[in-house]
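ARCHIVE RECORD
Type: protein–small molecule complex
Small molecule: protoporphyrin IX containing FE
Source of inputs: curated submission
Record status: active
Notes field left blank by submitter.
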Amino acid sequence: MTRTRQLTPWVLTLALIAVALPLGLSNGLRADEDSPIAKEMEAINSNYKQLRRAARTKNFPDDTPKMLQEMQMATLKGMHMEVPLVKKMAASKQTEEMVAFKKMLKKQLVTLIDMEIAYMEGRVDDLAEGVSELGSIKSDGHDRFTED
Ligand code: HEM
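STRUCTURE (tokenized, with ligand):
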């Protein structure tokens, strides 16, 4: 057997590892940043940033209702998703934690609906107040349910 023939199975094995490793990493080992809940949060966040900017001048753009509706839908979707941190807790704690999680997102959903109505009724101060309420709901939620 030539030296090249002896080396071929090793080269193939190394090539297979080189292809399989990144696939394995993207399929779960890296987990949290790609969790379904994180994706909904990204949708909430991009709208939240715009609304926070608008709240400074109390000059809300025409697509404010659209932003609030997107945030409402992402909040409702997120409410029914797994929370990576809760999954790591003892099984006996998980129901209690998920109840607290759903209560916080329910509060967020109601706030977002109230903000949409405030916009429709031209109550700009209430709308700006809603933006700061979202800020405190967010920090309560992240204190309890994220690891950063
Ligand atoms: C205006 C409100 C909120 C904003 C703008 C917001 C924003 C974000 C952002 C930017 C992330 C990171 C996403 C990523 O990793 O790509 C995130 C993750 C997350 N947020 Fe929020 N959030 C809000 C409210 C909440 C609330 C109220 C809760 C809980 C009741 C919550 C729970 C979580 C969880 C569980 C994650 C994922 C953590 C993980 O992957 O382990 N968030 N959020």
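CURATOR ANNOTATION: The radius of gyration is 23 Å.
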